[in-house]
Amino acid sequence: MMVKHRINVSRTGRGLGLSKAYALIRRAACAALEAEGIRRPCEINVLLTDNEGIREFNRRYRNVDSPTDVLSFPFNEFLPGKFDPEGAERDLDTGYILLGDIVLSLEKARCQGEEFGHGPDREIAYLTAHSVLHLLGYDHTDEGEQKRLMRSREEYICEKIGLDR
């Protein structure tokens, strides 16, 4: 049975480009949730912006005055691979589990897609999977096992939607 997740995608303004980004982000987020075995309906909010927009989020919430590709704001504290629906934040009206917010710079994704030679679609899918994994408790603060695990999950998710390397 396919679980129906709510992936809300909005943007900071017109002219960001990549009109198919909405559908791609929804597809990648749902694939990440499925790959992690999430069988309860979840909600994620994604805000698309440019480098200046994400720079402002970075400055405000991380005290870093530079743009990045994606930011994750989890609503819960899960351990990687240990989703706990009973202890999670929930929308009282819909019952959806609230996983958190994602801010993604389409400008940065386009540049990185070109730089890495795989194009913007794969980069957007990869960054979405990366951020959803953060919402589910994964991290990569060091070069150890956690980072390797997270990278392998990201690659697996991209392969599932046909955007492997």
The tally of structural domains comes to 1
Q: Number of helix segments?
A: 5
Strand order, largest beta sheet: 1-2-4-3
CATH superfamily: Metalloproteases ("zincins"), catalytic domain
Q: In whole angstroms, how far apart are the ends?
A: 29 Å
Q: Point out poorly predicted stretches.
A: none
- Could you give the count of β-strands? 4
Query: According to CATH, what is the class?
Result: Alpha Beta
What structural class do you assign from the helix and strand content? alpha/beta
The residue fraction in helices comes out at 40-55%
- Rg over CA atoms: 15 Å
CATH overall fold name: Collagenase (Catalytic Domain)
Largest sheet properties: 4 strands, mixed
Q: Report the CATH architecture.
A: 3-Layer(aba) Sandwich
What is the chain-wise order of helices and strands?
A: EHEHEEHHH
Work out the strand percent: 15-25%
Protein architecture, described:
There is one protein chain. This protein has a single domain (6-160), classed as 3-Layer(aba) Sandwich (Collagenase (Catalytic Domain)), CATH 3.40.390. The longest helix is centred in the last third of the chain and has 17 residues, at 119-135. The chain has five helices and four strands, in the order βαβαββααα. Helix 1 (21-35) crosses helix 5, helix 3 (106-115) crosses helix 4 (119-135) and helix 4 (119-135) crosses helix 5 (145-160). By secondary structure, it is of the alpha/beta class. Helix 1 links the parallel strand 1 (6-11) and strand 2.
